[in-house]
Amino acid sequence: MLSGKYLFQCSKLIKSAQVRKFVSYLTVIILLFIFQNQLYAQRKNQVHRIVIDAGHGGHDPGARGKSCREKDITLSIALKTGKLIKKNCPGVEVIYTRETDVFVELYRRAQIANENKADLFISIHCNANPSPFPYGTECYVMGLHKSDANLAVAKTENASILLEDNYSKRYDGFDPNSPEAYIIFNLFQNAYLDKSLDFASRVETNFTAHTQMPDRGVKQAGFLVLYRTTMPGVLVETGFISNTKDEAFLMSPKGQDRVAFSIYRAFDEYRRSFDPTLPKGSTSIVFDDSLFQSHPAIRRLKRQEILLAGKSDTVSDMENRKSLVNAAQKNISGSEKDRKDNAIHEDNLPHVSEKTDVVSQKKNSVPSEKNPRLVIKVDSNNQKTNRFKIDETRVKTDEPKVVEKPVPANTTPENINSGITFRVQFKISSVELSLTSKEFTDIPNAKVYVQNGVFKYTAGDEATSAAADHLRRIIAGKGYKDAFILPFFNGKRITMKEAYEMMKNKQ
Questions:
Q1: Segment holding 317, helix H or strand E
Q2: 449: exposed, middle or buried (C-beta count within 10 Å: 0-12, 13-18, 19+)?
Q3: % the chain with pLDDT above 70
């Protein structure tokens, strides 16, 4: 017989082995549970379904350019974007809110995304402005507008509900033209804001990399089409069809392909951010020129203009445009009103002199002081408004040079005779400062003018915009980095729009 002591030891060993086995099993179960949760979370964040919304449609043409309608441009870009995603992102389902020229209510667009349990919603639009000056791309995410300009964009896009039957009841009495109605968005907490901002930022980054249009930034505003979606969503403004160059670019097959490719690349980066193991999509642009033959708006535009719009693809040109917009996005402390009242754009202001020595331009990459090229920089806060901001600089241009009749060397620029001069505003103050003080010692031709009880200080009184821009750079080097240019007529400050009209009439 086994002794009691031996039996006790055996029992102890058995129990010890059972405990170890139990602990091992428990550890495996816990690890499997953790891994499963991580895998579930990863799959939950993966993007398997995307809804692409082509803005407007049917009896809602959207914004109108000189030769196109927004609804045509957005549909083409939406279909091109979806085609790229289907081809290069296996496993991703693409759903369109419309694939033809039909009218789809705003509430229905959001409903389509919600019913299909989409992981991302992209609404594609074209911007427009009463002024031909603003240009470039921008993205909006759902939120309360932080400027009147953002509100104006939202009003324009939300106005589509006025074309819907029974819109007042359907949208709980919402009036897209009433600023007070947008107070509702104060109460809206977007649970997907971070993801929306992430995707929007990727879109703008890719626009900068793959198109010639500058990045006007990611902004927030109250869009009904985003308000009712239950997933990350972005409204993309692909450019200003009120601007001739943006319009030609967006109407061209090459331009549309680049815009679509930019959105696709942003999507590919966004989806892989949740699962780095996913294969990287195509990084090459394949142009589809079939639209050139079929798009009615494109047929109405000269082929030469379309080809010219997509010509500026050099790195230096893209960097130059980007630097212009980045500078435009800086705020001038205390002088924001001046910025909003004045702006220029490189395609729309006339030359200072109608008669230009173009032959000498071909010999020099930088225009001379006698032959400046007006360049417009758009303030990022100035979309959808009639207010402008000045910034003039000399840049190379890809536009073909046309030899015109040269003028004698002693010819005076027309704006001198017209009384238009340009000054550099660099400081404002609520109290008057002496122009003889030490602060203004190194400021050439310092002057002051009063507007709405505020003292505003300027430098120079230049006959040409190029000379004023040269002075602006000097003033910026003295620490006034936000200095900008203003036009004056016979010593009185005027807006850039007034200066433009005066120079235009003088030609």
A1: helix 315-328
A2: middle
A3: 55
Identity at 332, one-letter amino acid code: I
> Which pLDDT band, with edges at 50, 70 and 90, does 402 fall under?
very low
Span(s) in the chain for CATH 3.40.630.40: 49-303
CB atoms within 10 A of CB 363: 7
Query: Nearest CA to 466 among 356, 362, 371, 330?
Result: 371
Contact 234, 334 (CB under 8 A): no
Tokens 């109405």 found at: 300
Q: What are the start and end residues of each CATH 3.30.70.1070 domain in the chain? A: 326-506
Alpha carbon distance 339, 271 (integer Å): 39
At residue 17 the predicted structure's pLDDT band, cuts being 50, 70 and 90, is low
Place of tokens 């400027």: 147
Average pLDDT, the chain: 70
Distance in angstroms (rounded) separating the CA atoms of residues 116 and 93: 10
Q: What are the start-end ranges of the H helices in 355-452? A: 358-363, 414-418
Three-class SS state of 279: coil
Element (H, E) at 235: strand 233-240
For residue 6, what is the enclosing H or E element? helix 4-45
SS (H, E, C) 164-177: CCCHHHHCCCCCCC
* Best CA proximity match to 261, nearest among 136, 406, 130, 83: 83
The four Cα atoms 308, 309, 313, 319 give a dihedral, to 10 degrees, of 120
Distance, CA of 140 to CA of 217 (rounded, Å)? 9
Q: At what angle do helices 253-272 and 244-251 cross, to 10 degrees?
A: 80
Q: Checking phi first, is residue 166 left (phi over 0); if not, alpha (psi -120 to 50) or beta?
A: left
Q: Round to whole Å and give the CA distance between 282 and 268.
A: 9
DSSP state of 163: G
According to DSSP, residue 157 is labeled: H
Amino acid letter for position 44: K
CA distance 10 to 249: 86
The structural architecture, per CATH, of the domain 49-303 is 3-Layer(aba) Sandwich (3.40)
**Is the Cβ–Cβ distance between 372 and 351 less than 8 Å?**
yes
User: How far is residue 496 CA from its own chain's centroid?
Assistant: 23
Query: What is the DSSP-derived secondary structure letter of residue 332?
Result: P
Please list the alpha-helical segments (H only) found in 159-217.
167-170, 193-210
Q: Find where tokens 């939120």 sit.
A: 143
Residue 472: which pLDDT band, with cuts at 50, 70 and 90? confident
**Tokens standing for 91?**
């496993």
Pairing of strands 233-240, 137-142: antiparallel
Q: Per-residue confidence at 146, pLDDT binned at 50, 70, 90? A: low
Q: How far is CA 19 from the centre of its chain?
A: 64
Q: What residues have CB less than 8 Å from 254, skipping those under 6 apart?
A: 287, 289, 310
At the second CATH level, the architecture of 326-506 is 2-Layer Sandwich (3.30)
